[in-house]
Amino acid sequence: MRVLLTGGAGFIGRHVEDQLVAGGHEVVVYDSFRPDVHAQRPEPRPGLIVGDVRDRETLASALHGIDTVIHLAAKVGLGVDLDDLDDYVSSNSLGTAVLLKELAHAKIRHLVYASSMVVYGEGRYDCDRHGQVAPEPRRTEDLDAGNFEPPCPVCAAPLRPGLVKEDAVLDPRNAYATSKLSGEHLAQWWVRETGSRVSALRFHNVYGPGMPRNTPYAGVAAIFRSALDRGEAPRVFEDGRQRRDFVHVRDVAAAVTLSAAALPQQPAFTAYNVGSGTVTTIGEIATELSRAYGGPAPVVTGQYRLGDVRHITASSERLKHELGWKPTFDIQTGLTDLLHDR
Ligand code: UD1
Known about the structure:
With about 350 residues, this protein is α/β, with parallel strands linked by helices. The chain has 10 helices and 17 strands. A 7-stranded parallel β-sheet has the order 3-2-1-4-5-9-14, sandwiched between helices. A 4-stranded mixed β-sheet has the order 7-6-8-17, with no helix packed on it. A two-stranded parallel ribbon has the order 10-13. Strand 6 and strand 7 (about 130-135) form a beta hairpin. Helix 1 (about 10-20) packs across helix 7, helix 6 packs parallel to helix 8 (about 280-295) and helix 8 crosses helix 10 (about 330-340). The protein is globular and about 55 Å long. The mean pLDDT is about 95. Bound molecules: uridine-diphosphate-N-acetylglucosamine. Uridine-diphosphate-N-acetylglucosamine binds near residues 78, 118, 218 and 223.
């Protein structure tokens, strides 16, 4: 394959580039080096184009000779406040729209799109009396009172969280999630218009070497590591029992590479969850990192972020069965790997 890798200088992108090159593919990295993520502009090198996906001319010339595009470029994270709203829509929704338009002009038909588990909103829940239910967004009064679990929307009973599959209802609950889902929808329409193929990979919480440091947009594992580096305790929001699936960045890069290579044999549009299959609580991640680091024990603060969902964990069986993907890192090895990343 000759691949254009947008966001190729980012946390996930650098691992994807390594694996593509190791697999004998040609890679052109396309990255805007946005200053809120990258402290420095890069030295010029062959195979690197500094550009924003919204910049049509630079993008169009970068697409010459490309047969597959992997679109990782995005503004990630939950956002700091409402001032981030238009930047999410512009960077992610508009960015994807411009990319799709230029792919159509260049007659490039194969796209891997980096989506996210956040498109599901609150994950899967079952009520003993009402079966599978979709909880409402959590209410501020409940969160203020320390009631973090979303109740059954019918009888208010406690719910059992479960694993989301790709055909679950999509229900984004913050600006980032909305922008990621709009990218999927735009890609589906592009597929119909052009006869192309897209795999949308819905990443779980990605962690590992190269995670961004000291930014409010970093994932929680990086935030905890930065706290430990400063000699401080990791600060765990809510009661620490919120559930996630932490998937190692090298396993994620393998999923991206595999799905790009499989595109010619794929149906028009396929969504794949990408998670390790191991459910972990944020409190457990904090405890494990503090222990492995030899730092202070975590503090559970009871703080919350309104855009956060309580539990979100997925089944990645489709990716395993259809593409033969297998996660290889367990969380202890993965977190140690993260701590040794200096
Ligand atoms: C993360 C990713 C998002 C990705 C999604 C896929 C980041 C910043 N977010 O979202 O891009 O699409 O996974 O599932 O990488 N928390 C603390 N203390 C802190 C910060 C956070 O306890 O200092 C808690 C949060 O309240 C939340 C959990 O940690 O419950 C995870 O937060 P975060 O790492 O931001 O990830 P997600 O919101 O799950």
